[in-house]
Amino acid sequence: MNDLLHRIKSDLRISDDNIDFDDEITDLIEQAIADLRASGIKSEALADIKDIIIGIDGVDGNIRRAIILYCKAFFGLENPDKDWYLQHYFNKKAFRRWYWTTNRDTYI
To answer: Helices in the chain by DSSP H: which ranges?
Structure first.
Protein backbone atom coordinates (compact mmCIF):
# COMPACT_ATOMS: atom_id res chain seq x y z
CA MET A 1 0.00 0.00 0.00
CA ASN A 2 2.97 2.34 0.48
CA ASP A 3 3.63 2.57 -3.27
CA LEU A 4 -0.03 3.32 -3.85
CA LEU A 5 -0.11 5.90 -1.07
CA HIS A 6 3.02 7.52 -2.52
CA ARG A 7 1.48 7.67 -6.01
CA ILE A 8 -1.81 9.16 -4.79
CA LYS A 9 -0.01 11.71 -2.62
CA SER A 10 2.06 12.72 -5.61
CA ASP A 11 -1.09 13.14 -7.74
CA LEU A 12 -2.63 15.25 -4.96
CA ARG A 13 0.55 17.37 -4.85
CA ILE A 14 1.37 16.31 -1.28
CA SER A 15 5.00 15.65 -0.38
CA ASP A 16 5.99 12.25 1.01
CA ASP A 17 7.24 13.86 4.25
CA ASN A 18 3.78 15.26 4.97
CA ILE A 19 1.96 12.44 6.76
CA ASP A 20 -0.97 14.58 7.98
CA PHE A 21 -3.32 13.20 5.31
CA ASP A 22 -2.12 9.59 5.10
CA ASP A 23 -5.12 8.16 6.99
CA GLU A 24 -7.62 10.06 4.84
CA ILE A 25 -5.91 9.05 1.60
CA THR A 26 -5.62 5.41 2.70
CA ASP A 27 -9.35 5.39 3.49
CA LEU A 28 -10.11 6.82 0.04
CA ILE A 29 -7.97 4.16 -1.64
CA GLU A 30 -9.83 1.42 0.24
CA GLN A 31 -13.19 2.99 -0.65
CA ALA A 32 -12.24 3.17 -4.32
CA ILE A 33 -11.21 -0.49 -4.37
CA ALA A 34 -14.43 -1.51 -2.59
CA ASP A 35 -16.50 0.51 -5.06
CA LEU A 36 -14.75 -1.07 -8.03
CA ARG A 37 -15.35 -4.54 -6.60
CA ALA A 38 -19.01 -3.74 -5.94
CA SER A 39 -19.39 -2.59 -9.54
CA GLY A 40 -18.23 -5.93 -10.90
CA ILE A 41 -14.47 -5.59 -11.30
CA LYS A 42 -12.99 -9.02 -10.58
CA SER A 43 -11.19 -9.34 -7.27
CA GLU A 44 -8.18 -10.83 -9.08
CA ALA A 45 -7.76 -7.54 -10.94
CA LEU A 46 -7.59 -5.71 -7.62
CA ALA A 47 -5.71 -8.34 -5.62
CA ASP A 48 -2.22 -6.88 -5.72
CA ILE A 49 -2.83 -3.18 -5.46
CA LYS A 50 0.91 -2.45 -5.46
CA ASP A 51 1.27 -3.94 -8.94
CA ILE A 52 -1.81 -2.10 -10.16
CA ILE A 53 -0.63 1.34 -9.18
CA ILE A 54 2.95 1.14 -10.42
CA GLY A 55 1.85 -0.20 -13.78
CA ILE A 56 3.56 -3.57 -14.06
CA ASP A 57 3.05 -5.18 -17.50
CA GLY A 58 -0.36 -6.73 -17.92
CA VAL A 59 -2.04 -4.61 -15.28
CA ASP A 60 -5.06 -2.59 -16.34
CA GLY A 61 -4.27 1.12 -16.57
CA ASN A 62 -7.98 1.91 -16.39
CA ILE A 63 -8.17 0.48 -12.87
CA ARG A 64 -5.08 2.38 -11.80
CA ARG A 65 -6.54 5.62 -13.20
CA ALA A 66 -9.95 4.98 -11.65
CA ILE A 67 -8.43 4.75 -8.17
CA ILE A 68 -6.52 7.99 -8.71
CA LEU A 69 -9.64 9.79 -10.01
CA TYR A 70 -11.70 8.58 -7.05
CA CYS A 71 -9.13 9.87 -4.57
CA LYS A 72 -8.83 13.21 -6.35
CA ALA A 73 -12.61 13.62 -6.34
CA PHE A 74 -13.15 12.96 -2.65
CA PHE A 75 -9.96 14.34 -1.08
CA GLY A 76 -10.50 17.38 1.13
CA LEU A 77 -13.65 19.17 2.15
CA GLU A 78 -14.33 21.52 -0.73
CA ASN A 79 -13.16 20.43 -4.15
CA PRO A 80 -14.42 22.61 -7.01
CA ASP A 81 -13.35 19.92 -9.52
CA LYS A 82 -15.11 17.05 -7.74
CA ASP A 83 -17.81 16.61 -10.40
CA TRP A 84 -15.22 16.48 -13.20
CA TYR A 85 -13.17 13.81 -11.41
CA LEU A 86 -16.29 11.79 -10.53
CA GLN A 87 -17.55 11.83 -14.10
CA HIS A 88 -14.21 10.51 -15.34
CA TYR A 89 -14.15 7.91 -12.55
CA PHE A 90 -17.64 6.70 -13.52
CA ASN A 91 -16.57 6.52 -17.18
CA LYS A 92 -13.58 4.34 -16.29
CA LYS A 93 -15.78 2.11 -14.15
CA ALA A 94 -18.40 1.78 -16.88
CA PHE A 95 -15.72 0.86 -19.43
CA ARG A 96 -14.39 -1.92 -17.19
CA ARG A 97 -17.90 -3.30 -16.60
CA TRP A 98 -18.62 -3.27 -20.34
CA TYR A 99 -15.28 -4.88 -21.16
CA TRP A 100 -15.78 -7.57 -18.54
CA THR A 101 -19.22 -8.52 -19.87
CA THR A 102 -18.01 -8.72 -23.47
CA ASN A 103 -14.56 -10.28 -22.88
CA ARG A 104 -14.91 -12.46 -19.77
CA ASP A 105 -12.17 -14.87 -20.82
CA THR A 106 -9.57 -12.21 -21.47
CA TYR A 107 -10.37 -9.87 -18.59
CA ILE A 108 -7.54 -9.32 -16.13
So the answer is: 2-11, 22-38, 43-46, 49-54, 61-74, 82-102
